[in-house]
Design a protein that fits this description.
- By secondary structure, the chain is an alpha+beta fold.
- The chain is built from 8 helices and 21 strands.
- It has 3 domains: 67 residues, 2-Layer Sandwich (Uridine Diphospho-n-acetylenolpyruvylglucosamine Reductase, domain 2), CATH 3.30.43.10; 109 residues, Uridine Diphospho-n-acetylenolpyruvylglucosamine Reductase, domain 3; 104 residues, Uridine Diphospho-n-acetylenolpyruvylglucosamine Reductase, domain 1, CATH 3.90.78.10.
Length: 313
C-alpha cells in the first residue's frame, strides 16, 4: 500500500534544500511500487515527476502541481562483468559493490550523491569517466508499459540525455552496466586513487546546500580552443588539451566568487557551484544564475548552460 502524502515540502528532498510543496508525494523502493504510483497518478489525472536523491534539482518555490515519485532503494545483481541496479540504487552503493566483486569502471563516481537513475538521466561524470561509457541496457516505464531501451536510444551528450532533454518521457526502472574485471592489485590501486579523488572533491565542497555543479563546462573543437586561447592568454594551458573550458574558471575570472542574492551565493571554494547559505529561494538562485551567465557572456562571449534540472517552473 502506497503512503501518498499531500503538500510535502520538496526542500526536504533536495540537496539544495530549496523547493515548495509537492501536491502529492510518495517514496517507492521497487519496480512494482513505481508502477502502482504512476497508475495512481494517471487514475487521479495528476502529472507526475520521478526523482532520485534530489541532488541535481532546483524545485520552484511554488512546488510541483502533481505527484512526485521518489524512487530510492533497489537491488544490485552482478553476473560476471555485468551489473544491473534498480534506478533508486545510490550511485555510491553500486560503485562499492562493483569494486568488492572485482569490477572497475564506476570509480569516477566517488563522492557523487544521487542514484543510478539520476546519474543515467544526467549522464553524470567526473575524473575522465561518465555514465554513458558503461551503460548497455535500460528498463523504463513508458506510457504504462515496461520497455527495454538500448544506449543509442538515450542520445547521451555531455551531462545530458534524451531523458533530461524531454525527448523520452519515461520513468527509469533499472540500468544494466558492463564493467571491467580487475585484478586484486588493480583494485588496490583504484582504492588509492579513490582516496585521492575524494580528498580533491572534499576540498571543493560547497559551503551550504547545493546541487553540485550548477553549470556545464563548455566543450570546444581544437580550432575553437586555439582561438579562445589566443584571445585569452591567461587561460591555463592545462585545460587546452581537453578542449574544455571549465565553467568555474570563467565565473572566477569574472570576479563572481562570493556574489550573493538573498541566501544564494556563488561558492567561494568552487565558483562553478551556487550554494544555499541559508534561507535561499529558487527565485534567488534563478536571479544569480542569470547574473553569472550575463557576466560570462559579456567578458568571454561564451554562453553557459545549466547542469541543474528545473522542476515545477
Amino acid at each position: 500500500m502506497l503512503n501518498i502524502k499531500e503538500n510535502e515540502l520538496m526542500k526536504n528532498h533536495t540537496s539544495f534544500h530549496i523547493g515548495g510543496p509537492a501536491k502529492h508525494f510518495v517514496v517507492v523502493r521497487n519496480i512494482e511500487e513505481a508502477k502502482e504510483a504512476i497508475k495512481w497518478a494517471q487514475d487521479n489525472k495528476n502529472d507526475y515527476k520521478a526523482i532520485g536523491g534530489g541532488s541535481n534539482l532546483l524545485v520552484s518555490d511554488r512546488g510541483y502541481d502533481g505527484l512526485v515519485i521518489k524512487y530510492f532503494g533497489g537491488d544490485i545483481k552482478i553476473d560476471g562483468d555485468e551489473v544491473e541496479a534498480g534506478a533508486g540504487t545510490p550511485l555510491a552503493q553500486a560503485m562499492n559493490e562493483s569494486l568488492k566483486a572485482g569490477l572497475a569502471g564506476l570509480e569516477w563516481a566517488i563522492g557523487i550523491p544521487g542514484t543510478i537513475g539520476g546519474a543515467l538521466c544526467n549522464n553524470a561524470g567526473a575524473y575522465g569517466g561518465e555514465m554513458s561509457q558503461s551503460v548497455i541496457g535500460i528498463t523504463a516505464l513508458i506510457e504504462g508499459k515496461i520497455t527495454e531501451l538500448k544506449p543509442e536510444d538515450c542520445e547521451f551528450a555531455y551531462r545530458s540525455s534524451a531523458f533530461k532533454a524531454g525527448k523520452i518521457e519515461a520513468m527509469i526502472l533499472s540500468v544494466k552496466l558492463k564493467l571491467q574485471k580487475a585484478s586484486e592489485d588493480r583494485i588496490k590501486e583504484i582504492n588509492i586513487e579513490l582516496a585521492n579523488n575524494l580528498a580533491d572533491r572534499n576540498s571543493k565542497s560547497a559551503e551550504g546546500g547545493s546541487a553540485g555543479s550548477t553549470f556545464r563546462n563548455i566543450l570546444l573543437s581544437a580550432e575553437e580552443m586555439k582561438e579562445f586561447k589566443n584571445k585569452h592568454s591567461e587561460f591555463p594551458d592545462q585545460f587546452v588539451a581537453y578542449n574544455k573550458i571549465p565553467a568555474a574558471w570563467l565565473i572566477e575570472e569574472c570576479g563572481l566568487k562570493g556574489k550573493k542574492i538573498g541566501g544564494a551565493m556563488v561558492s567561494e571554494r568552487h565558483a562553478g557551484k551556487i550554494v544555499n547559505i541559508g534561507g535561499a529561494t529558487a527565485e534567488n538562485v534563478i536571479m544569480l544564475i542569470s547574473v553569472v551567465k550575463q557576466k560570462v557572456r559579456s567578458k568571454f562571449s561564451q554562453q553557459l548552460m545549466e547542469e541543474v534540472e528545473y522542476v515545477g517552473f
